[in-house]
Amino acid sequence: MTGGAAVRVVLGVSGGIAAYKSCELLRRFTESGHDVTVVPTAAALEFVGAPTWAALSGKPVASDVWTRVEAVPHVHIGQHADIVVVAPATADLMAKAAHGMADDLLTNTLLTARCPVVFAPAMHTEMWEHPATVANVATLRARGNIVIEPAEGRLTGADTGKGRLPDPSEIFEIAREVLSRGASVPDLAGTHVLVSAGGTREYLDPVRFLGNRSSGLQGYALARAAASRGAEVTLVAANVSLPDPAGVKVVRVETTAELRDAVVAAAPSADAVVMAAAPADFRPLGVSDAKIKKSDDGSSPTIELQQNPDILKEISQHRLRDGQVIVGFAAETGDSTGSVLELATAKLARKGCDLLVVNDVSGGAVFGSPDNEAVLLAADGERVDVPRGSKSSVAHAIWDQVSSRLSR
């Protein structure tokens, strides 16, 4: 999405109250240097007027096929787009798209586009769960479109539930992920993947805990990348303060025991499990109900530890789903017993997973950084070196390996 000619984005807006949020999405596209054409439906213009879209995009706006008919906009716009993002996508708009209807400029554009198409639905829960909408979404996905799962939260009026438009910043990130892969087929469509992220906390008392430096950035990049490749994604997040990736179900946990319970509950329905979280190896044998005080004589309390469950080993060696691909992570520094790769190779055999993502974290590298590099070790002996790049690029390298194994 950088360098060369500006990426040509079509932002379709259909008629829902969430249309106003797409102004923020448009701003993110334009501020990133993208050439954006806004194509609203007539109903969308009841919520946000054409002058707003024109001012924010720097281009004239029309919703019908008759404006500047000599330029054949109903064909031209879709033919020349690099990506089409429809946000919000109402039940009505997706029904028309699924059945090939073309009664306005946006639906004509969807029929002529040969680029990736991303739908960000927004509607009431009952509409999202209706069999007609379920069937239409399935049809769109089967054709290679990305239909993001809506978020849960406050809807129009006093209603709350699933159907809320995902955060515009996260829709933008999904679009970035899709564009990074060009016209690639969403190879994870029809799969359910489980990703863990962040670092667990083991409490000593109400205010202190044992923890680690995991930021959750790599796990969130994995979740976002999987969603952009068409997967249904469950993300178990341990103490991560990042916004929910668009289209991803997020389960929040704190301790290793909570992480284990959430992973074990979701793993049986997952085609792939990627354990990017950093669970604490140990927890205090006892937790004080009150804050541990300093002693007057300067002595320090003794903290007795016990081992936490080995989640990766458990789900690898007791699989409840045939053909499931399980990926572990190894943050290693190397020591007197072996190098980073030697220790990681032993861990791969000990855990029983299919792939192990090896990070050399000597000197605190990786933690909190937007970049990463890794070595992917496979149980079948394959090794893939992933050069330093964004955590998104590393995530896609991991999913490339997972996808190839799921299709075997």
Automatic annotation (TrEMBL):
GO molecular function: FMN binding; metal ion binding; phosphopantothenate--cysteine ligase activity; phosphopantothenoylcysteine decarboxylase activity
Similarity section: In the C-terminal section; belongs to the PPC synthetase family. In the N-terminal section; belongs to the HFCD (homo-oligomeric flavin containing Cys decarboxylase) superfamily.
Coiled coil spans: none
Cofactor: FMN; Mg(2+)
Native source organism of the sequence: Nocardioides cavernaquae
Stated name of the protein: Coenzyme A biosynthesis bifunctional protein CoaBC
Residue ranges of domain Flavoprotein in the record: 8-173
GO biological process: coenzyme A biosynthetic process; pantothenate catabolic process
Enzyme Commission (EC) number: 4.1.1.36, 6.3.2.5
Catalytic activities: N-[(R)-4-phosphopantothenoyl]-L-cysteine + H(+) = (R)-4'-phosphopantetheine + CO2; (R)-4'-phosphopantothenate + L-cysteine + CTP = N-[(R)-4-phosphopantothenoyl]-L-cysteine + CMP + diphosphate + H(+)
Gene3D superfamilies per UniProt: CoaB-like, Flavin prenyltransferase-like
Positions of the UniProt region annotated as Phosphopantothenoylcysteine decarboxylase: 1-192
Family matches, as InterPro entries: CoaB-like_sf (IPR035929), CoaBC (IPR005252), DNA/pantothenate-metab_flavo_C (IPR007085), Flavin_trans-like (IPR036551), Flavoprotein (IPR003382)
Location of the region described as Phosphopantothenate--cysteine ligase in the Swiss-Prot/TrEMBL record: 193-408
Chain positions recorded as CTP binding sites: D281, K291, P309, D310, I311, L312, F329, K347, K351
Methyltransferase in keyword set: no
Organism lineage: Bacteria, Bacillati, Actinomycetota, Actinomycetes, Propionibacteriales
Keywords: Decarboxylase, Flavoprotein, FMN, Ligase, Lyase, Magnesium, Metal-binding, Multifunctional enzyme
This protein's pathway: Cofactor biosynthesis; coenzyme A biosynthesis; CoA from (R)-pantothenate: step 3/5; Cofactor biosynthesis; coenzyme A biosynthesis; CoA from (R)-pantothenate: step 2/5
UniProt function note: Catalyzes two steps in the biosynthesis of coenzyme A. In the first step cysteine is conjugated to 4'-phosphopantothenate to form 4-phosphopantothenoylcysteine, in the latter compound is decarboxylated to form 4'-phosphopantotheine.
Domain DNA/pantothenate metabolism flavoprotein C-terminal per the UniProt entry, residue ranges: 188-404
GO cellular component terms listed in the entry, alphabetical order: phosphopantothenoylcysteine decarboxylase complex
Cofactor binding, note field: Binds 1 FMN per subunit.
